[in-house]
Amino acid sequence: MPRFVRPWRVDHPALPIRHQQRVAHDSQRRGELDPTSDKLARFRQQQTDTAVHQAYQLLETTKDVDGAIARYTWAIQLSPANAEALYWRGRAYLLGKNDRGRALADFESAIQLDPRHFESYRNVDWLLAQRGDWDGVITHWTRYIELEPLNGQAYLERGGAYHRKGDERAALADAHKACELGAPRACELVGHATATR
């Protein structure tokens, strides 16, 4: 039976990566022994939360992008269905390394795991907009709106893509819908669009 690895405190800033990998390996071996164990699930969740917290702290305090990405990756290894870890690793790839391909892959994976993860959609929007892929942006927001039809901000975001694409009728329709749903910026835009007609 594998040895027990004591989890480090959440606020410990310098958890060595080798230790992280050993914990992940031990955790995986425990899973092979008893994958239904509640204790194992709690252990993995605690280790995942610790890694995500440490990664965020590394980015905020020391700007250690590689260390943060390593910890997010560790969290994903421990908990492959963790959309938050994927989202934050995508942010680290995007802002810390300007690696748009890996960032986009992480944001899209986060959306697959949590189809209502708004911030991942927002980041996919930005990345696709950088390429001028307005149809891709519209498709992503349409998918989100199908799940969350009362989210005014999503209509506003999609309306912006329609506007950039040159489809003013669809852009205005989305702005009106966003305003109806309480998005204040949309109401400003609708008022301005109506006044300029």
Topology (SSEs and partners):
Elements: H1 17-33, H2 38-62, H3 65-78, H4 83-97, H5 100-113, H6 118-131, H7 134-147, H8 152-165, H9 168-180, H10 184-195
Compose a concise summary of this entry:
The protein is mainly alpha-helical. It has helices at about 15-35, 40-60, 65-80, 85-95, 100-115, 120-130, 135-145, 150-165, 170-180, 185-195. The longest helix has 25 residues, at about 40-60.
Description of the molecule:
This protein has helices at 17-33, 38-62, 65-78, 83-97, 100-113, 118-131, 134-147, 152-165, 168-180, 184-195. By secondary structure, the protein is mainly α. Helix 5 (100-113) runs antiparallel to helix 6 (118-131) and helix 6 (118-131) packs antiparallel against helix 7.
List the secondary-structure elements in sequence, H or E: HHHHHHHHHH
Q: What's the overall geometry?
A: elongated
Query: Under CATH, the topology of the largest domain is which?
Result: Serine Threonine Protein Phosphatase 5, Tetratricopeptide repeat
> What structural category arises from helix and sheet content?
mainly alpha
Q: How many E-type strands? A: 0
> Tally the helices: what do you get?
10
As for the number of domains, it is 2
- What is the percent of helical residues? over 70%
Low-confidence runs:
1-14
Largest sheet: none
The Cα radius of gyration reads 21 Å
